[in-house]
Every structure is written in structure tokens, then in C-alpha cells.
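Workshop exercise sheet. Pairs work together: one partner reads the sequence aloud, the other fills in the structure field after running the prediction. Swap roles for the next sheet.
Pair: D.N. / O.F.
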Amino acid sequence: MDNKKDIRLMKGNEAIAEAAIRCGVDGYFGYPITPQSEVMETLMLLKPWETTGMVVLQAESEIASINMVYGGAGCGKKVMTSSSSPGVSLMQEGLTYLAGAELPCVVVNVVRGGPGLGTIQPAQSDYFQSVKGGGHGDYKLIVLAPASVQEMADFVELAFDLAFKYRNPALILSDGMIGQMMEKVELKPYKNRWTNEEIDQLHPWATTGKPAERERNIITSVELDPNAFERFNHKLQDKYRKMQEEEVRCEQFNCEDADYLLVAYGSSARICQKAMELARAKGLKVGLLRPITLFPYPTREIQALLGHVKGILSVELSEGQMVEDVRLAVDGKVKVEHFGRVGGVVHSPEEVVEALERKIIGG
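Structure field:
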């Protein structure tokens, strides 16, 4: 197989599929829903089962697909699924089971507008569901928010690396804009899938069959002894705290001298980059902080800017969800407001600047 660098023009959803094959994914289990259907469609066209041996299967539902992921993850395999907002809602029970069993996997959510069946247009209104634990119990997902088609490709491998490092599900939280837009992408060389022997060595917890020299591995998320289950929950919280210490990722633009700060992720961050340029052309010292990990959240990075920032505008394609984490980070030290468009309507850079002037600078 040719391992030379490969540069192509492709959709974000197509980049997810290409990256999955190239980073040695063992299995993809999904169900079609707009605006992410091209992920599975691209995999079906590429037929990786003929080249790498990767399994690609259309399940009978999103509930079935996440439980197939559970089975593959329990065997130490690199497995993933993708969906869009209503489909990810159906996966919540499976995701909390995966977190409770400490199983690594990758889920891609190409967000569309809601609530309900909503619209197929882009939105960022799944933030709460993604970072606060949309299922039952005290658990967290690792959440990565790509802002380009290149990052859609790059974050597949990163998500798997983090998922296996922490034995925890990882979520790539995109939206319909990035999923459908086309950009130049540099695809990484192919990696071989792990052999069964490598899985036994790398992941001794996996259920790959019991050899004579060790006890059997049991994958479960149930514990009927309350004291034992409390200790397990404390273990999970220790793991999440370690993520917060070691895995925060964000980008900062013109934050060193900023009087005012825009905080935005994903497609909103792209729009805010232009809004920042327009504001600076008007003589306003505006910076942009873009969270790349939504969990763990860049709380300390925001706090480090509060010595000179006078106000913050959280820009989202929602009625205001991430703004709550911005306010928690700021702890009342400066003014924080929200600006968003919903229902599939996307804000313009000019609208962001106007909202900053109205809500923060002149508010």
C-alpha cells in the first residue's frame, strides 16, 4: 500500500472515513442520518474490507450500532460510529455503558439543529449533551471540536489515541457545515491494524480469550456493592481530573493585548477569526480563544487572560450552552455575554462584531 502523503479536496465527512481507514480502525458500525451520511457512504465506496480488513456495517439502528461498538471495544479493537444529533441521542445509554466499562471508542457527531427532528442545517446545540454526560451517571466523554476538514481527518487518530490512553469513549463534535464543506486535506500514511497478539500485549484488559496463565477478563459496568461502586466512581473522577490536567487543547489569536475576547469553537471559531479582523480594523483590540477540547475545557487558559480582558462574548450556533462554562471560568470577574444563531441560521462576521459592540463594549 502506498504510504506517500496524499493531498485531496474533500468533504469533512469524507475525511473522517479516509482517516479511519488510514489509522487502522478495525470496525465502523453506523446508521445513515443527514448531514453525516457520507461517512458511511464513503466507507462503502472505498471497500476497506478488501484492503485493510476493516469491517464496515450498516446496523439496523443507532442503538444497535453503539452496542456493536461496545462489543468491539470490549475486545480491544479500534471501533467507531458516526451519526447526527437525534441519532446520537439514541446512543446515550450505550455511551454511558462504554464509559462505565472503561472502554475506548470514537463517536462522531455531525450536529444538526434541534430540538426534536429539527433541521438538517448546522448547529452547535449538542454541547450540553456532549460535555456534561448526556446519559445517566457521573461520567465524561473526551470531546474534540474540529474547525476544518483537515482537523476532521487529524482528530480521528487523536481521538483514538486519547480513548485508549484513558480507556474512555472519545467524541468528535462537528457540525453540518464542516461535515459538508470541501477543503484541501493532507491525509496521513496508512497504519496497519493491530494484530491479536499486539492487542494482548497493549491492552491486557481486553476480552480476547482466557489463556491459562491469567484470570479471565470481565467487561461490565454493573456493581451491586455500593461501597465498591463508590470507589469505582471515585476512580473515574480521578481519571477525568487527570484529563483536565494533561489534555486541554485550545488556540489563541491576538489574545496577548486583547481588551475584549471572543470564545468560540468549531465553525463558529472560523467565523470569529474574520470578526476579530474586522473589529481590529475598527481599532478594537479583540482576541479569539478557540477551545479544541470541549472536555477537558480550557478554563485555566481563559482565567490567564482576565488580567487585561474587559469582557467576553461566547459565540455559538445555539441559544447559549458553552457560555455557562465561560462564566464558570470567569467567576464574575468580567462581563460575559452570549451571541448565537439557531435553527440552521449561521451568523456572519459582521453580526458578531455588532453583537460584541452592543453587548460587551457598549453594554
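Discussion prompt: The mean pLDDT is 97. What would you look at next?
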